[in-house]
Design a protein that fits this description.
Elements: H1 2-5, H2 13-65, E1 73-79, E2 85-91, E3 99-105, E4 112-117, E5 120-121, E6 128-131, E7 145-147, E8 152-163, E9 166-177
Antiparallel strand pairs: 1-2, 2-3, 3-4, 4-5, 4-6, 6-8, 7-8, 8-9
Amino acid sequence: MKKLANNENGLTLVELLATLVLMSIVGALAYSLLSQGYSNYQRVNAESEMRDEADIVMSTLIKDLFSAKSNEVQLANSCNLNGWATTQLTVSKKNQPVQKIIFKPASSTSGKGMVTINDKAISFSDDVSIALYPCTPSSSSSYNIIANDQLSYTIQFQLEVKKNSTTHVMEFENTFNLISN
């Protein structure tokens, strides 16, 4: 019994507080590391989804333009009354139906857009939407398709995806050349 009474192997209050402080610091660092890893995962996942959608849009557009000659393509850019860009590219090949590629607003004021090929909308996954460029008639860089010259065109657009109340935006651009006459 005397052994137990004289045993001083317990913890002091200072040792206990030091242990709690150190464990709190380690816990906070671990939490911030896991939180940052999860947010990076969400960002990479959103970017991957947008890249996949952009690949579908670009391949669909380029497929129609791949063998077009410069005299078979006409570009019309305009601004609607609400200030959103509308772009129409018309491809008229001999002995083939006319192809119309249009970037236009999905509604009048939302800033969300749609891409149609021959009046058939390209569908995106549920979370992804195409963002329109606000435009002024004097600004050519705010349109989705820009004619660099008679043979070279640049397609540009922005995709948006919302993941966990965070909106991710990514811009895509591709330049292609037509066949000279």
